[in-house]
Model the fold of this input.
Amino acid sequence: MPGKRERRAIRRAAKALAMEEALEKQRRTDEKYMRQAMKLAQKAEALGEVPIGCVIVHEDRVIGRGYNRRNTDHSTFSHAEITAMKKACRVLGDWRLEDCTLYVTLEPCSMCAGAIIQARIPRVVMACSNPKGGCAGSVINVLEEKGFNHQAEVVRGILEEECSRMLSAFFTALRKRLKSGD
Amino acid sequence: MPGKRERRAIRRAAKALAMEEALEKQRRTDEKYMRQAMKLAQKAEALGEVPIGCVIVHEDRVIGRGYNRRNTDHSTFSHAEITAMKKACRVLGDWRLEDCTLYVTLEPCSMCAGAIIQARIPRVVMACSNPKGGCAGSVINVLEEKGFNHQAEVVRGILEEECSRMLSAFFTALRKRLKSGD
Done:
């Protein structure tokens, strides 16, 4: 039997290891669901829309999916997050989406960030930032605003590179099309 | 014929009068539409919902109406403004609601304020402020945030007293009901 000091060191090391493992597991889970959000973003791209996708997860089950269809639907509400949240509200039969995690490939705009706060979603995982309109810290920070009666935990940078490449490729192709006058 | 100086004074006075008359006309128009928003708020109250109503006006025609139905619909998107904006988008066949004025009885929340910016509504007329969640200056100011690619002109305090009385009466009655355990 090791001495008291060693036992303490072992327990401390075990605790640190467990925490690291839990974080690693969480990261893998986050990547798994972000990959699903990316697949949805590709559906938007196939429609000629900016590729943005979103899934909402409740108790390890996807209860809402959405992708950007703003031009297709002629509606300002056809953002990926709003569509996914609407479906999740229907599944849970409640306007509150407590105990849910929202995964989205691009930092939410002011409307979507506001909707996340209204629906009291506790955790938001995002891939890329949006310096021009993002409301999770880029322009303003609606998700973590202490003045509201609810704040969301924000995880940034999950599959950031892949989502960022997808967006860049879309805009490069769009500029090329516009230049050639198609 | 009056002298040069008098003529200038007359023209200046006429200009000031015209501006005052235009402002007075605008105020009367704003009150007319705010009264329609109040009527819609009463529909919300009849459902036991917080009385909030909204109309959207385009070329002196109401193209969207909405009232709060959040609990009735179990949806976080059943705010007065969102419902009115959805209808207006359908009428105009566009996600942009340019050249529209949105009238709402209570300062918009973060979601609705964000949606107003997303839809590029140029003018928002509101009755009461909402110190707990309002996003036209009370908690944050989404509508006039210079960091976004669009800002709305905000007119405050149209029929403020009447709308405020309506809200207070609702909450007083609600507290009474909750106290008596109904």
Notes: The interface with chain A takes residues 70-71, 73-79, 82, 85-86, 89, 93-97, 109-115, 117-119, 132-133, 135, 139-140, 142, 145, 147-149 of chain B (CB under 8 Å). Chain B is about 50% helix and 15% strand. Chain B has a mean pLDDT of 95. The radius of gyration of chain B is 19 Å.
